[in-house]
Write a structure and sequence with these properties.
Elements (H helix, E strand, L loop, with lengths): L8 H15 L18 E4 L4 E6 L8 E4 L5 E4 L2 E2 L6 E6 L3 E6 L8 E7 L5 E10 L6 E3 L5 E2 L3 E11 L4 E6 L2 E3 L7 E4 L6 E10 L8 E7 L9 E5 L2 E11 L10 E10 L4 E6 L8 E4 L2 E4 L8 E8 L4 E8 L4 H49 L8 H22 L1
Parallel strand pairs: 1-9, 11-19
Antiparallel strand pairs: 2-7, 3-4, 3-8, 4-5, 6-7, 8-9, 10-12, 12-16, 13-14, 13-17, 15-16, 17-18, 19-20, 20-23, 21-24, 22-23, 24-25
C-alpha cells in the first residue's frame, strides 16, 4: 500500500516508526522476491564518509526507508526525517534509496535498516563498522648514547585504534623480531578504542651507531607506512686505529710524517707514539696524532706504534717504515731508461734490415724479368733478327716452363 506524501510528513514519520517497531521482528526474506530489499555491510574510518545503498529488483510504488541503529528514520524516500546535516540523500528512485553519512564517528557504528512498506513489511540490514584510526606511534626508552655491548629497550605506543593496531619494528628496511613479546593492548575507559604498546630489546654493537630504528603501525584504516616513528641509536665504542703515511716511498734526506687515524665514538682525545723494540729517533717529534721526521735516514727504519684513546677504550695501530736510498732509486731509474732505449734500438735495427732485404729482393726480381724478356735479341745483327730471336726466346721459355711442369 502507498503512504501519504510530503504534506503529511509529521503523521507519516510517527506512524511509520510505530508500524516498523511492530513488524521489525517479523522480517521474512524471500529468495526470489523482487520486492525484497538488498543491502551490503560497510566499513569506514573515523572522519570518513560511508554510503548506504538499498535496492529492490522491482517497484510497486512503495517507498524505501533507511533507519539508524536507534530505529530512528533517516530518510523516507527522498524526504529527510532526522535533522543531521552529516546525513545526505545520495540517490532516490523507485528501486533504490542511497544515503551518505559524512564525518563518521565511532558512535555511528551498528546495524542500519532498510525497509519497504509492503504487506508484509520487508527489511534488510547493513552493518556499519567504524575503524578507530590509531595515532602516530611514540618511541620511548632511549635518551643517551650507550656503550657497545650493552642492551637497549625501546617502547613504542600508539593510541586510539579500533580494532587494536599491531606495531612492527624495523632496522632500516629489515623487520625485527620483538623477542617474542606480544603487544600490550589496553582498552580505553568509556571508549571503544585501544592503546597498544610494544617493547624491543637490542644488544648494540658499533655497527648500530646512527642506525634508525622504526616503529610502524599496522592497521586496516592505514596504508602501509602511513604512521611511523624513528629513533636513531647512538653507540659508544673504542677507536679503530690505522696509521697513514705521508708518502708510500719515504726517501732518505726528506721530510716525512705519519698520521694516526682513530675512528671511534667519541673521537680519540689522546695519542701515544712509540717505536717497537726501541725509542723514538731524536729528530722525530710527536704532535698529537702526527709523528714528524725532519730529515729521514736509514736509522729511522723500524715498526712504529700509535695508541689512540677516547675514554671508552683504546686500540693500537702499527706502520713499518723503510727509508729508501734516493741514489739507488735514481740509478734504478737510469737503468730503466737504458733498457727502454736498447729495446727501441733493436726494433729500429730489425726494421732497417727488413727494408734492405725487401729492396734487394724487388731489384733482383725486376732485373731477372728484364733479362728474360730480352733474351736472344742481344746478339742479333739487325732489328728484325732481334725481334725474331726475342719471340723465339719467349717460346723457348714457355716451352721450358711447360717442360718442367
Amino acid at each position: 500500500m502507498a503512504f501519504p506524501s510530503a504534506p503529511s510528513a509529521l503523521w507519516s514519520v510517527s506512524l511509520l516508526t510505530v508500524l516498523f517497531a511492530a513488524v521489525v521482528h517479523s522480517n521474512i526474506v524471500y529468495d526470489d522476491d523482487p520486492l525484497q530489499p538488498v543491502t551490503s555491510d560497510e566499513t569506514v574510518s573515523v572522519g570518513g564518509t560511508v554510503t548506504l545503498t538499498c535496492r529492490v529488483a522491482e517497484s510497486d510504488n512503495s517507498s524505501l526507508q533507511w533507519s539508524n541503529t536507534a530505529q530512528q528514520t533517516l530518510y523516507f524516500g527522498e524526504k529527510r526525517a532526522l535533522r543531521d546535516n552529516r546525513i545526505q540523500l545520495h540517490r532516490s528512485t523507485s528501486t533504490e534509496l542511497s544515503i551518505t553519512i559524512a564525518e563518521v564517528q565511532l558512535s555511528d557504528e551498528g546495524e542500519y535498516t532498510c525497509s519497504i512498506f509492503t504487506m508484509p513489511v520487508r527489511t534488510a540490514r547493513a552493518t556499519v563498522t567504524v575503524l578507530g584510526v590509531p595515532g602516530k606511534p611514540q618511541i620511548l626508552g632511549f635518551e643517551n648514547a650507550v656503550p657497545e655491548g650493552d642492551k637497549v629497550t625501546l617502547t613504542c605506543t600508539s593510541t586510539g585504534s579500533k580494532p587494536p593496531a599491531k606495531l612492527r619494528w624495523y632496522r632500516g628496511d629489515q623487520e625485527l623480531d620483538a623477542s617474542g613479546r606480544p603487544d600490550v593492548v589496553l582498552s580505553v575507559p568509556d571508549e571503544p578504542t585501544y592503546n597498544v604498546s610494544s617493547e624491543l630489546t637490542l644488544k648494540v654493537s658499533r655497527s648500530d651507531d646512527n642506525a634508525l630504528i622504526t616503529c610502524a603501525v599496522d592497521h586496516p584504516s592505514l596504508a602501509p607506512g602511513d604512521k611511523r616513528s624513528e629513533q636513531a641509536l647512538r653507540v659508544l665504542y673504542s677507536p679503530n686505529v690505522h696509521i697513514l703515511p705521508e708518502s708510500d716511498l719515504p726517501r732518505e734526506g726528506e721530510k716525512f710524517h705519519l698520521q694516526c687515524l682513530g675512528e671511534g665514538n667519541p673521537e680519540p682525545t689522546s695519542y701515544m707514539w712509540e717505536k717497537k723494540d726501541g725509542e723514538l729517533p731524536p729528530l722525530a717529534k710527536v704532535d698529537g696524532a702526527f709523528l714528524h721526521f725532519e730529515v729521514l735516514n736509514k736509522s729511522d727504519n723500524g715498526v712504529y706504534l700509535c695508541t689512540a684513546d677516547n675514554g671508552i677504550g683504546n686500540s693500537q695501530g702499527e706502520y713499518t717504515l723503510l727509508v729508501q736510498d734516493p741514489t739507488a732509486m735514481s740509478t734504478s731509474s737510469g737503468v730503466d731508461h737504458a733498457v727502454i732505449g736498447g729495446v727501441v734500438a733493436v726494433i729500429v735495427f730489425i726494421l732497417l734490415c727488413l727494408l734492405i732485404v725487401l729492396g734487394r729482393y724487388l731489384i733482383r726480381h725486376k732485373g731477372t724479368y728484364l733479362t728474360h724478356e730480352a733474351k736472344g735479341s742481344d746478339d742479333a745483327p739487325d732489328a728484325d733478327t732481334a725481334i725474331i730471336n726475342a719471340e723465339g726466346g719467349h717460346s723457348g721459355a714457355e716451352d721450358k716452363k711447360e717442360y718442367f711442369i
